[in-house]
Amino acid sequence: MSGQITPTAAACPGCIAAPADAARPVPQDAQIALSLPGIHCSACIANVEQALSAVPGVQDARVNLTLKRALVKAAPDLRAADLIPVLEQIGYEAHELDPGALSATQADKAGRDLLMRLAVAGFASMNVMLLSVSVWSGATDATRDMFHWISAAITLPAIAFSAQPFFENAWSALRVRRLNMDVPIVLAIVLALVTSLWETALSGKHAYFDAALTLTFFLLAGRYLDYRTRAAARSAAEELTALEVPRAIRLRNGAEEEVGVAALNVGDLILVRPGARMPVDGQIVSGRSELDRSLLTGETLPVFAQPGTQVSAGEVNLTGPLTIRATAVGEDTSLHRMADLVAIAESGRSRYTSLADKAAKLYAPGVHILSALSFVGWYIYSGDIRTALNIAAAVLIITCPCALGLAVPAVTTAASGRLFRKGMLIKHATALERLAQVDTVVFDKTGTLTAGTPDLVNLPEIAREDLAIALALAEASTHPLSVALARAARDAGITPADVSDLSEIPGFGTEGRLAGQRVRLGRAEWVGAPDSAETTAWLAVGDCAPVAFRFVDSLRPGAAEAVRALRDSGKDVILISGDTATAVQALADKLGIETWIARALPQDKAAHVQTLTDQGHRVLMVGDGLNDTAALAAAHVSISPASALDAARVASDIVLLGTDLSPIADACRTAEKATKRIRENFRIATIYNVIAVPLAVAGLATPLIAALAMSTSSITVSLNALRLR
Fold first, then answer.
1. Residue 5, by phi and psi: left (phi above 0), alpha (psi -120 to 50) or beta?
2. Same domain (yes/no): 573, 663
């Protein structure tokens, strides 16, 4: 299921309708890719695959839980628009992806490669250790030499295969004349092997084959733990690009033709049906409707659209067909520019230097100097290059950064496990380090602090007769307020009135007739009601005074607790949203947030986060929409809820798996504890070196002592990390 299906061109409608012809190519099956941000378990996979397979024309449906995507093989005339409602009916949000914009999904090759090398090093070290036990137990002369040669035969190919990542990284550093943590590792391994072979050839008593393999095994274990902590990360810019609409309906000489978005040009007339997303930036030429801009701007209310209204790629047309004239296509659209913002922000974040890298800058040259001085000193003292080389190898093995290599990944893995049990998934290797440094938290509003869906709040104040009429009108519309009204009325046991001649007027509302008089549910100006600062739908029955249905965007569970806990811990909390000033201020006052910004565009959010960063603040950004993606990537560290759009989750360092926001404050505390444990591990490694290095320099560290000391330090560091659990 992890493989990417290569998209194939669907046959045009005319070709499908035409009679079969031997010279004409057979229409190829359609390949449809869907983003499924809400799936989380094997039951979801089964439900989605079963629902999709039941759709006529679907030949095969496969769900990838890791990528949260469904790949569907279907008849040429089947479209994503036919499948999305099917999934929504069973409770799964779905978005169409452009398979051509997604890079081919690679199998988890890097993870499997590390695991294979780890297994080989572990298996080889166990076997060589068994042979070494015989030597340590007193084997001498020919028997000892035989065991040493057998150990060499096992160790050399095992090291050549298992230690490749260290060799490659060390060479990459040395090639540009710098040092990293892998340089002393490689030097220790190579020197241990050379010394051991020399000693074996001269029938010496000591060989470091077991120490070299054990060192490789422990370091690969740390490398694999580090890899697993960031295996979930993918490119947010790629996801944003894939969310662009892959096809559009172009109008030419009054005729409709379905074409790929890449074939559109500025000035083309494009038909956008209700429920479809805008494929390009443009201006409405004809038609009236309402637009859902929540994913791009954060506005909770649909926006009325009519001829002359400017639209952007990615906005959703809700109620009526629209004809737009393209003003920007391809890389010039607002959605594509947002993807560019994300890519720029991601590259900035990659400049963060981890604690392990900072330690390596000091540690690597220190180890080399110490080993070189030991060699020179013993050579001058004894005049025996063999003795000097043995002691230099012992110094390198004992001081090799095995504990340092485990210090960060061991803590990160333990902390990640603790937070996962509390409902948070750590995606990036340095996310915890960065989260511990946060002093400012920036929240998005819609879909983050709030649920993102309207709730009817004044139902008890409305007469049941009016509710019955409103229910009948609401059920004839897909408008978000109508859906919320219908849900609340049904839950209250209301049955719809017998309204006839129902019709939806795009951009205005729904009307019908009841007992000979006209009834309407919709916008204030359409039914003759006064404007309201609140989110309101109005019901007008004949000449009676309009009845108001008031809605609010309800708070997410734990939102108030999270904000209060963050403020109590001394962090500044800021609310920034694309919603109206009235809505943003009302929420800020409710949660006690003093600083808030309204009507913010995506680039405004990213710019504000960057401004805070330039002022020296370490910003945690919490958001869920496309309009938050650039800000999420620009922040020092970022969190998005699992209900967020796929691109927002990908841009984040941490994903909040549940609906409750209260774990955010606990994550900050855990991150601070994790960073403290990392520093403790560095101190443990330092103390170990202070004790062990003099023994090695004094020539008292046999291969057994070197292997035991190295293993003890690594185990101690791992046990200290487990205290986080």
1. beta
2. yes
For the chain, the first-to-last Cα distance in angstroms comes to 33
Q: From 419, 482, 438, 425, select the one nearest 456 (Cα to Cα).
A: 482
pTM listed for this prediction: 0.60
Q: By mean pLDDT, which of 377-386, 441-450, 699-708 is the weakest?
A: 699-708
Examine the pLDDT at 233 and tell me if it is beyond 70: no
Q: Which residues constitute the domain of residue 544?
A: 452-554
* β-pairing verdict for 637-641 and 619-622: parallel
Same domain, 492 and 578: no
| Domain containing residue 472: CATH number | 3.40.1110.10
Q: Which residues pair with 73 in a beta bridge?
A: 31, 60
Q: Out of 145, 182, 444, 579, pick the active-site residue.
A: 444
Domain total for the chain? 4
User: Could you identify the residue written with the tokens 């869920």?
Assistant: 624
- What backbone torsions phi and psi does residue 308 show, to the nearest 5 degrees? 100, -20
The pLDDT tens digits of the residues spanning 5-30 come to: 333 333 333 333 333 343 444 446 77
Residue 113 annotated as catalytic: no
Same-domain status, 548 and 562: no
Per-residue pLDDT of 557-582, as tens digits, reads 889 999 999 999 999 999 998 777 87
Identify whether residues 526 and 573 lie together within a single domain.
no
CATH of the domain at 12: 3.30.70.100
pLDDT attached to residue 680: 83
